[in-house]
Predict the structure.
Amino acid sequence: MSNRLHSSTVTRRDFLKVFCGASVGFIGAGGLLTSCGSSSSGSKRATSVTHQLGWLKISQFSGFFAGLEKGYYKDEGIAAKFNAGGPNIIASQVVASERALVGDDDNTTVLQAIDKGQPIVVYGTIFQKSPYAIMSYKDNPIRTLQDFAGKTIALSEATRPQLTPLLEKAGVDLKEVKYVPAGPDPSQLASRQVDGYFGYATSEGVALKQQGLDIIVTYFNDLGFPSYANVLITQPSAVKDNQDTLVRFLRASIRGWEYSLAHPEEMGELVAKKYGPEGLDVETEIAVHKAQAPLIRSPNGPLWIDRDKMEAVIKAAANAGSISKVLPVDEVMTTEIWQKASGGSGGE
């Protein structure tokens, strides 16, 4: 699995470009925590909070956009700014260097940053289950680890060391699995050059289905590699020094994600027409919203992150060699901000 949500593959629209002629643009990052402007009443100055997004302004961030549109951040006295990411912007570095108070990034990238001593802590997550998955045809399905035997698999270099121990544990003869480098789009699977293609169900998966291909999606998480995606990050010092701001920001964000999950059509159109890069298709963004919803929902509520699962994520990353050691979970994450933002309804 790649260290960034879309680093080893192009975006959904890049794939559609091959078929439909769409294009992509990028925006830079910056900003921190200041006090500026006035609240809705005009009597208080709003606290300005910059969030560095882990990728472009696309549907995987629509809950934040809902918070802006519906005034949830304004209700909390927060002037929220969301800076778009891109292939050359690593959100964890932006947050660690105090160019943004908060951000989101790939779970493995964040663990690697913490492993190297960067001042980062996780306080929530957008995706309860990473959309990273293997896609295959229904007439030649890959649903279990045993199904990899005799198959040709397109995957990134980062995915192979994560997949190999799972196959070995499942008793699969590695000689029976052929690996090829994953191309920049899932056309390898579309043309049946490979039996399985590792990518993102909310990106390449949606694009393949829109081409009318009869594919199935098996999440890497369900194959035994636990994973989050787009974990929410800040500096450890901010949890103490800017806790009230973080709680208010997260409370508004939770409301935004609740709204986004309940209104996929409205939010898909909003992303395509207002927030996203030029060229996004409304129907595609609606399809993305519907595809990502089950991966974002949590029994405790949006943006919750579970301590036990994070322990499993850390161990899996260490076992795959992505990090040098098993990191103490309490040095990686905190539920304190989420508990206070949600009124303490989540479990530990």
User: Anything to note?
Assistant: The longest strand covers residues 46-52.
